[in-house]
Amino acid sequence: MAPGGKIRRIGVLTGGGDCPGLNAVIRAVVKTAIGSYRLSVVGFENGFGGLIQNRARDLTMNDVVGILPRGGTILGTTNRDNPFKYQMVINGQKVFRDVSDRVIENINIQGIDALIVIGGDGSLSIARELYEKKGLPVVGVPKTIDNDLSATDQTFGFDTALNTATEAIDKLHTTAESHHRVMVLEVMGRYAGWIALEAGIAGGADVILIPEIPFSMDTVYEKINQRRDNGKLFSIVVAAEGAKALGGEIVVQRMVEESFDPIRLGGIGNVVARQIEEATGMESRVTVLGHLQRGGTPTAFDRILSTRYGAGAVNLVMSGNFGEMVCLRTPNIQSVPLADAVGEIRLVPKDGDMVRTAKQVGICFGD
Ligand code: F6P
Q1: pLDDT tens digit string along 83-93?
Q2: Which of 36, 184, 212, 336 sees the fewest Cβ atoms within 10 Å?
Q3: Which candidate in 121, 146, 206, 302 is catalytic?
Q4: Is the CB of residue 186 below 6 angstroms from any atom belonging to ligand 1?
Q5: Gap between the Cα atoms of 26 and 85, Å rounded
Q6: CATH no. of 160-295
Q7: No. of helices (H) and no. of strands (E), the chain
């Protein structure tokens, strides 16, 4: 840190999966830091990897021109490269090492007084460890399309993913109606059902399957058969990737040991579509929306939230609130300790207002 604890130069990185609004946060950080506080800004490339390997570049006002509506991140990102559990190959063997001292060395080489970490649960947990174990002055910004961070009303990126998923349901409706099919849409969200729930309500789904409410396929068949008996020769099913049948297991694609998020979910859509076809005799098709949910231009809501988070993060740095994360406490941007922000996932309350309303308008959750 600069003499007298003064903040002169800050670092920023984006970690974990990409997400609409990352560039809008970077832009707001740079504009606020340079424009309001006369600081200089360094961007680390590819998440914590850049911090470990000292891959960094200065970010100027020019570097952030035109990036507000752009998806992705100009800094690059990865959900690997945890400095406390860094994968190396020694004597042909894959091993994990704590290289967090290297992070501190590189922070000093870059002459950085504070670091802003823009990330989800995994990246913010690492940020917390760097703060608590290494004394690094860190501030966090909550990112994820999953909207599953407990300490904020909303993460940036969720609104865009929700709109993408809703548009997908609208489009699937036309094929479902024309071909008299059951269309199953599998959406992301990890262990939380926010995308499925909200897109399902917004898109008028008939069945929504979420991790918080284990489902029975018999209840799903009943709903689809009932619709057919009433002359509705199609149905729309939205399945969260983390949804599971009563007494069943989450469907896992594969394990990725070196990732912050070693369990790669996916496949529930296919399982459900096959079972519906077998049980009801109705042709059933599946669409896995996948990374389309993370791409594209952020919605106006996400651009505004990202901008407020980016400026808010610099304000936290300037007021010395290290080890904290900006959060939305509607209608204000506030902050919470990183320790309260990570670890506990924000799940859909299964008896909450949103699920109740969905059930009142006839949506089946398979329970
Ligand atoms: O956390 C965001 C998210 O998109 C999840 O919804 C999903 O399970 C995961 O990331 C997919 O990550 P990857 O980019 O490794 O496929």
Answers
A1: 999 999 998 99
A2: 36
A3: 146
A4: no
A5: 26
A6: 3.40.50.460
A7: 12, 15
